[in-house]
Structures are given as C-alpha cells and as structure tokens.
Design brief:
It is built from 11 helices and 6 strands. Helix content is 45%, strand content 17%. A hairpin with a 2-residue loop joins strand 2 and strand 3 (57-72). Residues 350-358 have low confidence and may be disordered. It has helices spanning 10-19, 101-127, 181-193, 199-217, 220-245, 251-258, 262-270, 296-310, 316-338, 343-346, 351-359, and strands at residues 30-38, 49-54, 57-72, 77-92, 143-149, 159-165. The longest helix is centred in the N-terminal third of the chain and has 27 residues, at 101-127.
C-alpha cells in the first residue's frame, strides 16, 4: 500500500525551481499531488523527477520503487510483488481556494491519470520495455492519495491531504446481485441449449459486453471498436441465417452473397427483409423513426473507421454515445425480428428465442 510520505516536498520544489522553472518566468501559487501505484516497475531511476508539459499544464512526475508481500494460498509462501509508487504533481498558477479543494482534487485526478496513460503509451512506443503494458483505472489501487498544497512555502496549514476513491480499482470488493430463480433457469438454458447456429449471436453479445467494460476502464477507442464489431457480427449472422432458413440457398451461393461490402449488406440486402413492415436500413443522417440505423453512421461507423485507419483518439463522450447508439440498434432490430415472421428463420432453438431480448440489454 502507498504510505503517507510524499515525494514532492518544499526541497524538491526548490530544486525544480532552480533547475527548470526559472526559465519559464512564472511562479506557481499551489499544487495538487496524486499518488498512483503502478503494477510494475518503470525503467527509471529511483526518486527520478521529471517536468512535463501536457494539455497546457506543467506537471512533475516522481517515482519510487517498492515491494509488498502477497501470500500464495496454494503454497503458503509470501511472494514479493514489485510496483512503482508514481507521484504526479499538477502546478497551479492561480490561488487554490479552500472551498474548491475537493473539486480541484477530482479534476487533478482525471488530468494526471490521462497524463500517466499518455506517458506509458509514449514509453511503450519509444522503448518497448519488457513487462510494461497500457493501464486503465482497474489496474490501480482502490483510492488515490491526494495532497492539495495551497502555497509554495509548504506550511502545514496550507496543505490538505485526502483520498479520491477509485471505484474501478483492482482490489475493490464488488458485491453481485443474486440471480432470481427465473434468471438462473434462463442462464442454465442458455448454457445447455447454445448451438452452432446461435454461437455467433453469443459472440456478438460478448463484444458488446467488452465494449461496456472498456468504457469503465477509460479505453475509449477499444470500446468503439468492440461495439462496431458486435454490430457487424450480428448483421452478418442475421443475413446468413435468413439465406439459409428462409431463402434455402446453397452454401456456395451464401458465401458469395456474404462477400458483399458492409454498406450494401445493410442498406440493400438486409433492408428488403424489413421493408414490408415499414422499416429501412439507411445511412442517412436525418433522424427517422422508421430507420433502424438512426445515428449509426456518424456516431459509430465513421468514428470506428477513423480509429482503425487514421489512428484517431476518441473522447469519452464519443465512446459513450457510440455504445448507447450501437446497443439501441441491436435492441431495436432484435425486437423487430421477434415481432415478425423472421423470428422463425433467425432465432431458432427454444431458449435463444426467449433470451434474445435480454442478451442485448
């Protein structure tokens, strides 16, 4: 566990001021310092201190290497686990008001954690050190120690120490709501009844669940890629099952039809099976209650392609919107199939018909 000894002290600040800050012609009025326990050792010297510029902010990072003992339940051994206590300090050039300290703490955690991710990404790209991997909040401790320092003299009355809870932390106990008898029976049925024809739907749901998990970890690009993958698997599976069970086509012809590009698959091939019920599959950006792909193109499809082909880094808001839109599309199409004759061609096999709605909740 992280102790209460802070690496960034008045002495460290004075050293930094002599070495670096005198070139900037400006003096900070306060700091917010946050401790993160990285689950591996960084290729830096112990107590290394570095000054960075990130998102128009001055940031200092200091590191200290530590070990803790973890008991092996099987062999009753205590194994030393190495980790890096990483202290990141955000400089403020305006006075930090006491009544705004808590808000500043949370803002500083968000910014410094984003910086830490960026630092590790840069380290991996530049040097590819062994054992170093990208991180999310789930890799870190359950609470981040935070120190608000409202003066450069570091006097005790100007320092407020606290913690910011990390609900995604790797050692947070998470209680699970117990399944009802109905839910348990449905789960048992899904486990027992899953067949080859429905396994693609299960894979689609798993990608959607992983997308949601990536959102909670702050891995927004991966969240969008996975929700798009979930949708693509779903669409191709629906079309393949219609060709097999409704159109009664040969495997050879089916394979040829499945080679169509994704746009045609949606707006031409699948669309015709829903048109008689008044629905369309359109990439039109206009909001249309009869369009089963509302907002899909601009909020999921285009952003996913920018990530995959241009290296675009999406925002948290873009990722949340993509997930919401993508899941809604899967829910709406699933509900429409269940209310039409397509149900007997697409959702076959007892439990799969009944469970299809909640799978995409």
């Amino acid at each position: 566990m992280t102790d209460n000894m802070w690496l960034f002290t008045k002495e460290e600040y004075n050293n930094l001021k002599r070495e670096h800050l005198k070139k900037k012609n400006k003096t900070p009025k306060g700091f917010v310092s946050i401790k993160y326990d990285l689950p591996y050792t960084l290729p830096l010297r112990d107590l290394e201190r570095s000054l960075f510029r990130y998102e128009e902010q001055d940031i200092v990072m200091m590191t200290k290497f530590k070990t803790r003992d973890e008991k092996s339940q099987k062999h009753y051994l205590f194994l030393p686990i190495a980790y890096t206590e990483t202290e990141i300090v955000l400089f403020y050039y305006e006075h930090i008001e006491a009544e705004k300290s808590e808000k500043k703490m949370h803002e500083a955690v968000d910014l410094t954690f984003s910086f830490l991710q960026h630092f590790i990404d840069s380290l991996i790209v530049k040097l590819d050190p062994p054992g170093i991997h990208r991180i999310s909040r789930q890799d870190l401790q359950a609470a981040f120690p935070v120190s608000v320092i409202r003066s450069t003299n570091f006097k005790p009355h100007s320092i407020e120490n606290s913690v910011v809870v990390n609900p995604h932390g790797n050692n947070v106990l998470r209680s699970q709501k117990r399944l009802t008898n109905k839910q348990l029976n449905s789960l048992i049925g899904l486990v027992n009844e899953t067949n080859k024809d429905s396994s693609e739907f299960v894979t689609s749901v798993l990608y959607m669940r992983e997308s949601k998990s990536y959102l909670t970890k702050g891995q927004y690009n991966s969240a969008i890629i996975h929700i798009q993958t979930s949708i693509e698997i779903y669409m191709y599976t629906v079309y393949r099952l219609i060709l097999i069970n409704k159109e009664k086509l040969s495997e050879e012809i089916i394979e040829k039809k499945l080679k169509t590009n994704y746009n045609n698959l949606l707006t031409t091939n699948l669309a015709k099976f829903f048109s008689d019920r008044g629905y369309t599959f359109s990439f039109d950006k206009k909001d249309n209650p009869s369009n089963l792909l509302n907002e899909y193109k601009e909020k999921v499809y285009i952003i996913r392609n920018k990530i995959a082909h241009e290296g675009y880094r999406c925002s948290e808001n873009e990722a949340n919107q993509a997930f919401t839109v993508g899941r809604k599309i899967l829910q709406n199409i699933t509900d429409e199939i269940n209310q039409s004759d397509l149900k007997k061609y697409v959702f076959q096999g007892g439990i799969h018909i009944e469970s299809r709605t909640f799978l995409y909740d």
